[in-house]
Design goal:
4 helices; single chain; 112 residues; elongated
Length: 112
């Protein structure tokens, strides 16, 4: 199988040509929503992540054009999820550091 029409194999006697149709705009929204629903327990967070990616795609004409290709759309969803995961981990680390600072400062006041 190839996506290059000039790259057909001469040894294939009965080769077939077919056209793969990409996603329509509604398909893109449905795919993104379904993707984030599969990875997020909190439905409100899922919807906000999906809405954010949809807005980002709509605001960039190149990305919007590429998102009609299912493989690219899957990649965009994956990258968006990875970025959101990293942001959440950084936020959690900051909260833990802040909590540690509070514990240290309260223990200093106990000593004084």
């Amino acid at each position: 199988m190839t996506s290059r029409p000039n790259a057909t194999c001469s040894y294939l006697n009965d080769h077939r040509i077919f056209s793969a149709i990409g996603f329509q705009s509604q398909d893109i929204r449905e795919y993104i929503n379904a993707y984030f629903q599969n990875f997020t327990i909190d439905k409100s967070k899922c919807q906000s992540q999906a809405d954010l990616l949809i807005r980002q795609l709509n605001n960039n004409s190149c990305l919007k054009l590429l998102s009609h290709t299912p493989l690219y759309l899957r990649l965009f969803c994956f990258l968006a999820r990875q970025q959101m995961t990293e942001v959440q981990e950084e936020k959690k680390e900051e909260e833990e550091e802040e909590e540690e600072k509070k514990k240290k400062s309260s223990s200093i006041w106990k000593i004084i």
